[in-house]
């Protein structure tokens, strides 16, 4: 309850901040973008993880306002990196189920792109498998509308943890599957995780989708993923999520 009232004031007190975790192309080792991850700078408790407060924002409905703030902040940030002549970057924003269910989501995204003047192909969206399968017909329709606005990079997060209908997977206008950390964890030794990762990579490629592995921590995991054709990785082996300036510095250093 105390957290709930704190969250209610967090937006106006400017206590939210976006961190950026790099995504690296395995073909050339280049940082091609980032996942935007929300943090709450609580006045007493320090950095609070979204795992603790996103569920509360979802329950109270505040996620819509905060989600819009995240989209706006990220689009503004990408624009300012472009203005500073940074190498080209895509940044992925996580959508919540409640945001996807609102039928004005497409209008909101279009307005933010317009306000920030960002070319829509630099904004990437992450939706979870379970959000899509909650009402697949609706999700296909909504994602088609968003894609029609020029947002062509839509990734399926936590892939493999829920269950997808393969016939729908083909119909969603998506361009990448994110291999969940829980499967990457067991690489390169756990037989089941090996089988699952290889199957997801094969499935994705046969549907002409890219594969982004998340939660990559070790050289062994990285080697396995590279040898098995994974396209992009994200994880502590590259970097933890970073504040915008530190992320930009890393991009320059590795350029
Ligand atoms: O950043 P990790 O460090 O703790 O994130 C925990 C969870 O919170 C992840 O499932 C992530 O997808 C989710 N998350 C992080 N940022 C956002 C956000 O801006 N919006 C939504 N809806 N979820 C987010
Ligand atoms: O649900 P989602 O996939 O958006 O969540 C991403 C979460 O995983 C974030 O909380 C992020 O901080 C965390 N994360 C990212 N890379 C790693 C990693 O290499 N190891 C661990 N333990 N967590 C990671
Ligand atoms: Na995500
Ligand atoms: Mn994920």
UniProtKB/TrEMBL annotation:
This is EAL domain-containing protein. Residues 1-255 form the EAL domain. It comes from Undibacterium arcticum. It comes from the Bacteria.
